[in-house]
């Protein structure tokens, strides 16, 4: 059974930082791409960042220079370091692994709220 558990969200002031974690079990983690998505109320889901199994990274323009995606294959964990947070970063952040053979897996999400 594949499980993804996100953590690290919370309430932070504008300009602050948070580090999201995604612990994955049930798959050969090192061979999967990891993607963080976010969804704000009333908005569609937005891809934030991807790190491939070969450590190539991709970011949406709005977070370039502020967010860093990484992975620790020894700990089956993906990370999203978020610096200089802005109110528009407020959303539920979801970790995905895959796709593999058309299948992706997603965690339950972690809430990030940026507000003064």
Note the main attributes of this structure.
116 residues; mainly beta; 4-stranded antiparallel sheet; 53% strand; globular
TL;DR?
This protein is an all-beta fold and 116 residues long.
Describe the fold and architecture:
This protein is an all-beta fold and 116 residues long. 0% of the residues lie in helices and 53% in strands. It contains no helices and eleven strands. A hairpin with a 5-residue loop joins strand 5 and strand 6. The model has no long low-confidence stretch (mean pLDDT 96).
Number of strands: 11
What sequence of helices (H) and strands (E) makes up the elements? EEEEEEEEEEE
The amount of helix comes to under 10%
Fraction of residues in β-strands: over 45%
Sum up the overall morphology in one term.
globular
Low-confidence stretches: none
Number of H- or I-type helical stretches? 0
Give the biggest sheet.
Answer: 7 strands, mixed
Oligomeric description of these chains: single chain
Alpha-beta content class: mainly beta
Distance between the termini: 40 Å
């Amino acid at each position: 059974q594949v499980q993804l558990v996100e953590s690290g969200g919370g309430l932070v002031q504008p300009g602050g930082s948070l580090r999201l974690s995604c612990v994955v079990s049930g798959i050969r983690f090192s061979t999967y791409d990891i993607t963080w998505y976010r969804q704000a109320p009333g908005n569609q889901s937005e891809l934030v960042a991807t790190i491939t199994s070969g450590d190539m990274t991709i970011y949406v323009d709005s977070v370039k220079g502020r967010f860093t995606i990484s992975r620790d294959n020894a700990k089956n964990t993906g990370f999203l370091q978020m610096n200089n947070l802005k109110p528009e970063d407020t959303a539920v952040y979801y970790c995905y692994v895959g796709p593999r053979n058309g299948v992706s897996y997603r965690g339950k999400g972690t809430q990030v709220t940026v507000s003064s």
